[in-house]
Design brief:
It is elongated and about 135 Å long. The protein has 15 helices and 2 strands. 69% of the residues lie in helices and 2% in strands. Strand 1 and strand 2 form a beta hairpin. Helix 3 packs across helix 4, helix 11 crosses helix 13 and helix 13 packs across helix 14. With 357 residues, it is mostly helical. Strands 1-2 form a two-stranded antiparallel sheet. The longest helix has 31 residues.
Length: 357
């Protein structure tokens, strides 16, 4: 059997290589342990103790500029400055020493790894005023700022998620509603978009009508009064209030996503029928209702006729048509008949009490 004999020189070289490798592994393990304990603080310290603060010249310190540090590190100056700014904020809060107290190679006790994310953002957009606002809003919502910043930097991705996912669309809708109070420009643009879209305009009108109907029913329950078709405010009967309360409870129990239009229409029609029955069953109230209805119509007709002027007409012949004259003559006869009827009503009580009549 042949046994290979390793020369003593080669054996020593192999042992030395193994020792070097072990040292490198140990160094990696130590670096890994330091990062596991301190997270980004470990790298923040390297920047803080090697990059000179703003305002210091190269002759005042052995530290180098962020640009030079980035070139040595093989990364961008923006990345270095994100670590720099994170350390600066933490120093202002007393978490770590200020730059001036650190020198190259110096070690200090570092905060826990979890705290690092409170100061550092992996996105350069977080350094802007807009980014800071997004970060603050994210923290208020209990999420990591980097998540919100990533969404803000990818509006196309956000649009795709809204179009594809109802849950995302609902979250976006609620966010927009929360923002409308503090953003008049957004509110104006949203209203314009609705007005320019026929389907949305009709939907808004339908919702407004349903809302008015629900409010009509709610006023009966809460105030105990109801408006008649002619516009009178009268006390609601016990039956009317009970029926209004029953319908209102059904509407209030609807889920957020359920349409209330049909429920509102049924409630409105029901109480309106009861109001009409109440008016018809009370002779005095019925007379008051007719009087109110006539006077309301008279006010509307007066307002419309007052607008029929020739102030902006240069030559009446230009607008004259035979049908106009016919309509005005018919209107004059109708007004005359109304006046005669009212005059008769004012004279009748006197003649009724005249012994000579």
């Amino acid at each position: 059997m042949t046994v290979a004999i390793v020369p003593p020189q080669e054996n020593a070289a192999s042992s030395e290589a193994t020792a070097d490798a072990a040292a490198l592994v140990a160094e990696d393990a130590r670096d890994f342990g330091a990062y596991a304990r301190t997270g980004g603080w470990a790298f923040g310290l390297k920047v803080a103790r090697s990059v000179r603060p703003g305002g210091q010249s190269a002759g005042e310190t052995p530290k180098i500029s962020a640009k030079e540090f980035a070139e040595l590190a093989g990364c961008s100056a923006d990345r270095v400055m994100r670590y720099y700014k994170a350390w600066d904020k933490a120093a202002d809060d007393g978490m770590v020493p200020h730059f001036e107290a650190l020198s190259p190679g110096m070690d200090v006790e570092l905060p826990d790894a979890d705290i690092w994310l409170s100061y550092y953002s992996a996105r350069s957009s977080a350094l802007s005023q807009r980014g800071e606002a997004i970060s603050e809003a994210a923290e208020a919502e209990g999420i990591r700022p980097t998540k919100a910043l990533e969404v803000a930097e990818n509006p196309t991705a956000l649009r795709a998620a809204i179009l594809a996912d109802p849950g995302t669309a609902e979250a976006a809708r609620k966010a927009l509603m929360d923002r409308l109070d503090e953003d008049p420009a957004l509110r104006t643009e949203l209203v314009r978009d609705i007005v320019r879209t026929d389907d949305l305009k009709k939907a808004v009108a339908a919702e407004a009508k349903a809302g008015d109907r629900v409010e009509y029913v709610r006023q009966i329950v809460e105030k105990g009064q109801v408006k008649t078709p002619a516009g009178q405010m009268i006390d609601a009967s016990a039956e009317l209030r009970e029926e209004a309360e029953r319908h209102l409870s059904l509407i209030d129990e609807l889920d957020d996503g359920e349409e209330s239009g049909e429920w509102a229409r049924e409630a409105y029609d029901t109480v309106r029928d009861l109001v009409a029955q109440t008016v018809q069953s009370d002779p005095e109230l019925r007379v008051q209702e007719r009087r109110a209805k006539f006077y309301s119509s008279l006010q509307k007709a007066t307002k419309v006729f007052e607008e029929l002027t020739f102030d902006d007409v240069e030559d009446i012949d230009d607008i004259y048509e035979d049908d106009m004259m016919k309509r005005l003559e018919d209107l004059q006869q109708a007004i005359g008949a109304c006046i005669t009827a009212l005059q008769t009503a004012t004279v009748r009580p006197e003649t009724d009490h005249d012994p000579r009549s």
